[in-house]
C-alpha cells in the first residue's frame, strides 16, 4: 500500500514539475498560439481568440509522446 502511494506521489510531482516548465517556457515560443488557422476575432469593444490549430498540434504531439511512453513502459 505504501509503495503504491509513494509511486503515485512521485508521478504527481513529476507532472506538476513538467506543467511548471511548460508555463515557464511557453511565453518564449513566439509561434505558439499564433499559427495560421487560430481564430482571432476583434470587435470595437471585445476580442475573441480561439487557438484551434495550436490545440490540435499540441494534442497530436502529446498523443504521440504518451503512446511512446506507454510502448516503452511495457
Features:
74 residues; DUF2905 domain-containing protein; mainly alpha; 2 domains; 2 helices; two-stranded antiparallel sheet; 62% helix; transmembrane
Biggest β-sheet strands, sense, barrel: 2 strands, antiparallel
Radius of gyration: 18 Å
Gross geometry: elongated
The side-by-side strand order for the widest beta sheet comes to 1-2
Percent of residues in beta strands: 5-15%
Domain module tally = 2
> What's the order of the H and E elements?
HEEH
**Helical proportion, percent range:** 55-70%
> What distance separates the N and C termini?
22 Å
Provide a count of the helices.
2
Instruction: Flag low-confidence runs.
Output: none
Average pLDDT rating: 88
Structural class: mainly alpha
Number of strands: 2
Q: How would the blueprint of this fold be written?
A:
Elements (H helix, E strand, L loop, with lengths): L1 H24 L13 E4 L4 E4 L1 H22 L1
Antiparallel strand pairs: 1-2
Keywords: Membrane, Transmembrane, Transmembrane helix
InterPro entries: DUF2905
Protein name: DUF2905 domain-containing protein
Task: Provide a descriptive summary of the structure in words.
Pfam families: DUF2905. This is DUF2905 domain-containing protein. The chain crosses the membrane at residues 7-26, 46-69. The chain has 2 helices and 2 strands. By secondary structure, the chain is mainly alpha-helical. The chain folds into 2 domains: 1-29; 31-74. It has a two-stranded antiparallel sheet with strand order 1-2.
